[in-house]
Amino acid sequence: MAALALAGCALPLPDKPPRTEPYDLGPPPAAGAAATPGAPLALAPIEASPALDSQAMVYRLLYAGAGQQPRPYAQARWSMPPPQLLALRLRQRLAATRPVLDAGSALAALQLRVELDDFAHEFSSPQISEGVVRLRVTALAAGARAQPLLGQRSFSVRRPAPTPDAAGGAQALRDATDEALRQLIDWLAGLPASG
Known about the structure:
By secondary structure, the chain is of the alpha/beta class. Helices cover about 25% and strands about 35% of the residues.
């Protein structure tokens, strides 16, 4: 018995399980000063399906016929759910052009609602992949009882991933997010009563 106990002590200890790496969208791109600040805007919380409202970093293998099977990376996750990452990024970008208030603020001239429809790393082959961001945005006149619709638009942006892994997917999703938000802000500036 003593020999068995001593032999058990000589066995190597198992390796620690690998740590999950958290990712976010990084610092926002530098924004130039707005020539004329826009009207105050109320930003509602970003809505998304339950599948996107978690910290899982999702990828799809389109080349394997598994495009309808979102899969989470095992060793990578977002630092917060994508709707929250997007809301933080959007608030930062909008604040460079106008005051941004919480939904329902009586001081806002405009209310913005955003739905996140897709936020995934898609593989068209084992080595070629893209970050995909799809948003649906609704702008409403704030303050009026009926809140008249000023405009609604969908944005869909794809950006290539530099590497076929979670780090490359995070970078591609950051680039796609920044481009989608740039398009959103340009669209917003052209709406009636938005300036």
